[in-house]
Specification:
The protein is an alpha+beta fold. The protein has eleven helices and seven strands. The longest helix is centred in the last third of the chain and has 17 residues. The structure holds FE2/S2 (inorganic) cluster (FES).
Length: about 230
């Protein structure tokens, strides 16, 4: 049997979070998300957690599993190599209930970086084309699924509630580096704020936990260079 220690918090009843323990048959092919479903359906119908795609695409099942932020649907029990699995909500986020956290702050920051192409030139008849080489420059950042694992692991995001954070900054670079986008100056100005890129202390916590193997630190360093260039021009 595998022991699941799950952090529980019901704001209507609990004053602070507590841990509850459940035993689940040892099926190493099972993901942590499937184990949570087993608990929900067979042991405790009051357990709350968030999910959607079950295939590491939507990013909604990010949580803290055995000491690290991970996607529950992507994490197989056998990879944790432990008879006890501890599951908590993403750290430093307001808990709504059990493993569900409030992501409003995270998405507000995402909106701040204007996460869409800006191009004021005359629209072509069909689409704006991009070469394979141009696309390669943003391949990694396009893969970000906005799960919040990096944001929740970031020490600066925890200390400075207004810091844009690694996910928003990665997306900022994704559009900054897009050959079809013409708002480079505007984008550099957005990230060159009191709570922008220079708050990043390059601790790499974000890069260590990304379930998509993205390195937000790389995007942030690139943006720092872009801002320095803008300041000198
Ligand atoms: S359920 Fe969509 S990423 Fe896990």
């Amino acid at each position: 049997m595998i022991t699941f220690k799950i952090e529980r918090f019901d704001p209507d009843v609990d004053r602070e979070p507590r841990f509850q323990t459940y035993s689940v048959a040892d099926n190493k092919e099972m993901s942590v998300l499937e184990a949570l479903f087993y608990i929900l359906e067979n042991l405790d119908g009051s357990l709350s957690f968030r999910y959607s795609c079950r295939g590491a695409v939507c990013g909604s099942c990010a949580m803290h599993i055995n000491g690290r932020n991970r996607l529950a649907c992507q994490t197989l029990i056998k990879t944790l190599n432990s008879k006890t699995i501890t599951v908590s909500p993403l750290p430093h986020q307001k808990i709504i209930k059990d493993l569900v956290v409030d992501m409003d702050n995270f998405f507000e920051k995402y909106e701040k970086i204007k996460p869409y192409l800006i191009n004021h030139s005359v629209e072509p008849e069909k689409e704006r084309l991009q070469s394979i080489k141009e696309r390669e420059k943003i391949d990694e950042m396009v893969n970000c699924i906005l799960c919040g694992a990096c944001y929740s692991a970031c020490t600066m995001s925890a200390l400075d509630g207004k810091f844009l954070g690694p996910a928003a900054l990665t997306k900022a670079y994704r559009f900054y580096a897009d050959s079809r986008d013409t708002a480079k100056k505007e984008r550099a100005e957005i990230v060159d704020s009191e709570h922008g890129i220079f708050r990043c202390h390059t601790l790499f916590n974000c890069s260590e936990v990304c379930p998509k193997k993205i390195v937000p630190t790389y995007s942030i360093q690139k943006l720092k260079g872009a801002v320095a260039k803008k300041r000198l021009s």
